[in-house]
Each structure stands twice: as structure tokens, then as C-alpha cells.
Design a protein that fits this description.
Elements: E1 2-4, H1 7-18, H2 25-42, E2 49-54, H3 58-72, E3 76-81, H4 89-97, E4 101-103, H5 108-114, E5 117-121, H6 133-144, E6 148-152, E7 174-178, E8 196-200, E9 214-216, H7 219-225, H8 235-238, E10 240-244, H9 251-263, E11 268-272, H10 276-282, E12 287-289, E13 301-304, H11 312-323, E14 328-330, H12 332-337, H13 340-344, E15 350-352, H14 356-363, H15 367-372, H16 374-385, E16 388-391, E17 397-399, E18 406-408, H17 421-434, H18 439-456, H19 463-485
Parallel strand pairs: 2-3, 2-5, 3-4, 5-6, 6-7, 7-8, 9-18, 10-11, 10-13, 11-12, 13-14, 14-15, 15-16
Antiparallel strand pairs: 1-9, 16-17, 17-18
Helix pairs in contact: 2-3, 3-4, 7-19, 9-10, 9-17, 9-19, 17-18, 17-19, 18-19
This protein binds ligand NPW, adenosine-5'-diphosphate and potassium ion.
Catalytic activity: (6S)-NADHX + ADP = AMP + phosphate + NADH + H(+); (6S)-NADPHX + ADP = AMP + phosphate + NADPH + H(+); (6R)-NADHX = (6S)-NADHX; (6R)-NADPHX = (6S)-NADPHX
EC number: 4.2.1.136, 5.1.99.6
InterPro entries: Carbohydrate_kinase_pred_CS (IPR017953), CARKD (IPR000631), Nnr (IPR030677), Ribokinase-like (IPR029056), YjeF_N_dom (IPR004443), YjeF_N_dom_sf (IPR036652)
């Protein structure tokens, strides 16, 4: 599990650790890790031109110490001082002692234009609000430069706790995070500015709390959660998932959701709705029924919504499924049709899977507000519906109603934004619910597999190919975990 901690928590851990170490030790560790990452990136240090954008806080200090280390190895180093009278004195002295020089922000254009590497030490976790004009101008110069850009701790201009970006922000090729990942590094729009994310351990680990603000599953976590049949399994024990999807107008949504459900590992898939012929033609193993969900027979979880429409049959089906005492995934049209109070009153797990537009409608907000503040909005959804909310989009987030860490999905690709892709995700996630995963685990494992399938397929692909790819990515996850467990020779 990769974890993100908010600034307040990182500061508290930093205080606890600093009390046990000599002055300046943490900054030395950070700067050493940073200089190493820069040298790796440059592929050689001697003769390279390094420019530091130096704010007056410790973030600027880290950058200056790292530049001093590079200068000692033969790089040319120049610092652009944002507030010369307040630049970190020790770090500035180190840079000068190593032969580096300083310039005022007015002279930044020329030095940045000639640089091989720009180190963004404008602000780190001490940044407040959008970048001030002078800082914003430097961020823009860095973005336009041909030089590689390395962000110190985080790209200046992104909110460390949320990933929100107000105005200009640095766009990095590499970001070197110190001590802990901050949520804003993992959530768009901030995450888009990060480039390759590297980590420098400065010893904060033992001082961080058990529960982070944000967590991202990795292969090993997913492997541990994925259901696999055992000797005693039969199709009912593996889980039966019911899918209520599709309409005369959108029969394809039924096929896609059922496809996802079959690949999610449930023992059987029941389909309820008017798309039965299309479903059977593609997946003859599906158990279909024409009546309402309440008469379809036993299921361990329901998926409702993709391509459902909003006629009276759809409305009745949504009401029945929301009233069921098994876990339910509510997607697409069903998000509009479900009664909010009935959802809040549910006792079994509930997963809502809106994209930003649907989330905006549910929250009475603008789509832009949802996309710009994904973490806050996914938490609001979970709270207001007392359900697990999976907010789809460039970074998919999963929040539970219990205030546990929000999960951020680390897999995926923009090629997933193709018609019907969400229908596959619904089926897949519903299948995992039927197999017995908690709402939070089913949603985050579903998004992980879906995202990995999207990365694995040669683009462009159609949504139906995603479901077919799931067994392959599942196997690669299992293989990587088994290989990691083998002794190294
Ligand atoms: N945590 C750890 O364990 C460790 C942390 N370490 C490092 O310390 C960093 C935190 O340092 P920090 O606390 O000094 O704050 P920092 O990020 O430099 O920002 C303050 C500066 O930004 C300025 N400023 C603020 N808002 C702004 C805006 N909108 N636009 C423009 N400027 C703005 C503000 O100006 P002022 O308000 O004072 O005028 C001040 O100059 C952290 O990210 C990491 O790199 C490591 O060394 C080792 C261990
Ligand atoms: N820019 C993006 N980057 C990564 N994934 C994306 C992006 N845009 C959309 N997605 C993913 O593509 C899928 C689209 O689902 P959805 O919006 O429900 O489409 P549809 O209704 O056509 O099925 C979701 O899994 C979403 O997370
Ligand atoms: K920075």
C-alpha cells in the first residue's frame, strides 16, 4: 500500500523525529536524496547547468543544498532568489562555497533559458493558496524551458493535501517527495504536474500514524484481496451477482456490464432486463430473467444502472434493488433514480459509481468544482449518501462512509474514457461485492483491474475488450506477487 499523509500529520511526525536528531539532519537527508535523483536524471553532473528556483522557506533550502552538492561535482549552479533577504542562510552559504551564484527574479529568463535542470524549490508543504505573481511567473518560465524540471517535495502551486491547483503550478518531470507522500501528489489535477514520483526516506516512518489520509493499493494488496475458488467452492459460494442494466435503446450496456461481472470472478451472473437476447448471444452462461429484480432469485450482490433508461420499469427496478438486503452497486441512470433517503437507510454495503458530471448532479455542484476538488467531493458523496462513493475520472477515488482512508486508484489511462467503459467497471465491481469483498475493497480492486486492463490493451480499444483483458492482468498481478516472494539468487 502506498500511503499519503496530510501536511498537519507530516509536520507532527517531523517534530517528533527532529527532537531525536541534531539540527539540520533532516534537511541534509532530503537534500542528499534530491541531489541523487537529479544526478540520475541528468545522467552525469560535470558541466551541467542547474538553476534553483529558491523560495525563502525550507523547500528552497533543500533545493539550494542539493544544488551545492551538484556544484561540488562540477555542475554550474545559479539560484534565482524570490526573496533575497530571507533565503535559507545556511543553504545559500553552502551554494556559494561550492561556487554557485545568485540572481534576482528579473534575470531568471536568461538563466532558465540556458539551464539543463531546473530545481523547483519555490514552495513545498508551507505553500498557502495559489502561487503569488512572481512565483507564478517562475513556474511558467520553468514550464516553457527545455530543461528538465525536478520538483522539490512537490510541484509548487499544487495543494499538498488535496491536489487542487489554483492558477499556475510547476510541471515537473520528476518529483522527489521527502518522508511521506502527500495526497496532492496522487490526485488530479495535482498528480498531472508530478511527472515520475520518487521517494526519499528521511526516517519519518515510525512517527506517522497507522491510518493515512489516502492510500493506493499495489499489486500485493490486490492479490491478497482477489477471490480465488478453493476446494469447497461452488458457484453459490463464489457469489452470484445480479445485473440490472440495458434497455431497448441501449442493449449494449447490458452486455458490457454482464461481461465485466463474468470476468470479476463471481460464480454466476443473473441478468434482469430487456437485453436478455443480446446478453445470451454473447454470454450463453448468463442466467436471464424477464421479471422484476425481486423475482429473479437469490443473488449476493446487485449492480444496477448502466443503460437502464428512466421509464417506470427502470424506476421500479431501482426501488426494489435499493431495498434489497444484499450489497448493491448503483451506477449511471440509477444514480438519478435512487431515492437518497432509501440509500442512506440501507444496511448492506452500497457503492455509488458516478463520473464527475453525475457526481455534480448528486451534489448540486458544477462539474468543474468536482473535477477541481475531487477529494473533498468524493468525501461529501460518501457522507451525504452514507455509502461508498467511487468517483470516476482521471484519478478515480473511493471514499467510504466511515471516515477511513480514501483510496486513490493508481492504475488507468485516459484511453479508458470510451463509451461503455464504466459499464464494464460496474459489472466487475459488482462481481467482487458478490464474492464477499467489502464495498471499499470491491470498488478499489474493481477500479484497479479495470485501470490495469486499460493500460495493458493496445489503444484505441473498445469497452468490450476491457472485460476480456481482466484475466490477463489478474494473472500478471498474481505472477508478480509470487515472483516477489521467491528467494533472490
Ligand atoms: N516535513 C519534513 O519532515 C521536512 C521538510 N523539509 C522541507 O521543508 C519544506 C517545508 O518548508 P517550510 O515549512 O519552510 O515551507 P515552504 O514549503 O518552504 O514554504 C514557505 C515559503 O513559501 C512562501 N509561500 C507560501 N505560500 C506561497 C504562495 N502561495 N506563493 C508564493 N510563495 C509562497 C512563503 O513565503 P512567506 O509567506 O514567508 O512570505 C515561504 O517563503 C518541505 O516541503 C520540504 O521541502 C525537508 O527539509 C526535511 C524534512
Ligand atoms: N482522463 C481519464 N483518465 C483515466 N481514466 C478515465 C479518464 N476519463 C475517464 N476515465 C475512466 O473511464 C471510465 C469511463 O466511465 P463512464 O464515464 O461511466 O463512461 P461510460 O458511461 O461511457 O461507460 C471510468 O472508469 C473512468 O474512471
Ligand atoms: K517545490
Amino acid at each position: 500500500m502506498r500511503c499519503g499523509y496530510d501536511v498537519e500529520t507530516v509536520r507532527a511526525a517531523e517534530r517528533a523525529l527532529m527532537g531525536t536528531l541534531p539540527d539540520g539532519a533532516l534537511m541534509r537527508r532530503a537534500a542528499f536524496g534530491l541531489a541523487t535523483a537529479c544526478a540520475d536524471m541528468l545522467g552525469g553532473v560535470y558541466g551541467r547547468r542547474v538553476v534553483v528556483l529558491a523560495g525563502s522557506g525550507d523547500n528552497g533550502g533543500d533545493a539550494l543544498y542539493a544544488a551545492a552538492a551538484l556544484a561540488r561535482r562540477g555542475a554550474g549552479a545559479v539560484a534565482v532568489e524570490l526573496a533575497p533577504e530571507r533565503t535559507h542562510p545556511g543553504a545559500l552559504a553552502a551554494l556559494r562555497a561550492a561556487g554557485g551564484r545568485t540572481v534576482a527574479p528579473e534575470d531568471a529568463d536568461a538563466v532558465i533559458g540556458r539551464a539543463d535542470l531546473v530545481l523547483d524549490g519555490i514552495v513545498g508543504i508551507g505553500g498557502k493558496g495559489g502561487l503569488r505573481p512572481e512565483a507564478a511567473r517562475l513556474a511558467e518560465l520553468a514550464r516553457r524551458a527545455r530543461a528538465a524540471v525536478v520538483a522539490v517535495d512537490l510541484p509548487s502551486g499544487i495543494d499538498p493535501d488535496t491536489g487542487e491547483v489554483a492558477g499556475e503550478a510547476v510541471r515537473a518531470d520528476v518529483t522527489v517527495a521527502f518522508g511521506a507522500y502527500k495526497p496532492g501528489l496522487l490526485i488530479d489535477p495535482g498528480a498531472e504536474h508530478v511527472g515520475a514520483l520518487r521517494f526519499t526516506d528521511i526516517g519519518l516512518g515510525p512517527h506517522l500514524p497507522r491510518t493515512p489520509a489516502l492510500e493506493a493499493l499495489q499489486h500485493a494488496d490486490v492479490a491478497a484481496l482477489l477471490p480465488s475458488p478453493s476446494g469447497e467452492s461452488d458457484k453459490y459460494r463464489r457469489g452470484v451477482v445480479g445485473v440490472v442494466a440495458g434497455s431497448e435503446r441501449y442493449p449494449g450496456a447490458a452486455v458490457l456490464a454482464v461481461g465485466g461481472a463474468l470476468r470479476g470472478g463471481a460464480g454466476a451472473v443473473r441478468y434482469v432486463g430487456p437485453g436478455a437476447d443480446a446478453v445470451i448471444a454473447r454470454f450463453p452462461e448468463t442466467l436471464v430473467s424477464a421479471g422484476p429484480p425481486a423475482k429473479a432469485g437469490r443473488v449476493q450482490a446487485w449492480v444496477i444502472g448502466p443503460g437502464l433508461g428512466d421509464d417506470s420499469r427502470a424506476r421500479q427496478a431501482v426501488a426494489e434493488v435499493v431495498a434489497a438486503d444484499v450489497p448493491v452497486l448503483i451506477d449511471a441512470d440509477a444514480l438519478r433514480l435512487a431515492d437518497r433517503e432509501a440509500v442512506r437507510a440501507r444496511r448492506a454495503g452500497t457503492v455509488l459509481t458516478p463520473h464527475a458530471g453525475e457526481a455534480a448532479a448528486l451534489l448540486d455542484a458544477d462539474r468543474g468544482d468536482v473535477e477541481g476538488a475531487r477529494l473533498a467531493q468524493v468525501r461529501r458523496l460518501a457522507e451525504e449518501f452514507r455509502a461508498t462513493a467511487l468517483l470516476k475520472g482521471s484519478t478515480t477515488l473511493v471514499a467510504g462512509p466511515d471516515g477511513a482512508a480514501v483510496r486513490v486508484n493508481p492504475t488507468g489511462s485516459a484511453w479508458l474514457s470510451t463509451a461503455g467503459s464504466g459499464d464494464v467497471l460496474s459489472g466487475l465491481t459488482g462481481s467482487l461485492l458478490a464474492a464477499g469483498l467489502s464495498a471499499q475493497d470491491a470498488a478499489s480492486v474493481g477500479a484497479y483491474l479495470h485501470g490495469l486492463a486499460g493500460r495493458d490493451l493496445p489503444p484505441p480499444f473498445g469497452a468490450h475488450e476491457l472485460a476480456d483483458r481482466v484475466p490477463l492482468v489478474r494473472a500478471s498481478i498474481m505472477d508478480s506477487v509470487t515472483n516477489d516472494a521467491l528467494p533472490r539468487t
